[in-house]
Amino acid sequence: MPRESLPYLICLLLSIAIFSCDKDRNSSIYGCCDHPWLRGELGNISFVTPNVFTPNGDGINDQLEFFCDSTILIRSLKIYNASGNLAYQTDSILADRYIHIWDGKTKGEVKEGIYTVSVFLEAPDGSTGNFNAKVCCNECLYPPPPEPLDCNNCLFGDQILANMYGWYTNYPIIECELCFQ
Hints:
Layout: H1 6-27, E1 38-42, E2 45-49, E3 52-53, E4 64-80, E5 86-102, E6 105-106, E7 109-110, E8 113-122, E9 128-137, H2 157-165, H3 171-180
Parallel strand pairs: 3-9
Antiparallel strand pairs: 1-2, 2-4, 4-5, 4-8, 6-7, 8-9
């Protein structure tokens, strides 16, 4: 490579690094709601898991939850970080309507980011299935980010509870405003 091309190569590499970092930043906690929530059916059971939770100890959406319209057996639950490393695993949980499945901690610490949830379920009729989705763990430590973020595609656990039990809560709206706007 000619020596005079070196400044152009350095400029190109720096540009890639800067824009890649910005994209990574935006696609981690800032892109929380870019991924659809886990929703499906197995046998005659419907289930859903939010695509975002905020484990900051305020009592609102602090844990990743699993919701279903009847009792279902979670045979295996595995949660992987963005690098593909196992962050959390548990087996044989009986979920009856809803259950807290993860507090967002890996080795005792909350690690913000986008995680892959892989769950193997068994319905009461014996049918089984494996389901995968992305979920955002955002510790939501205030103040909010400098630029407001869109929460239209966010699904918080409290929204699901409100729908299941027919009562209204404004916690998801408050949580979104405090964390993202």
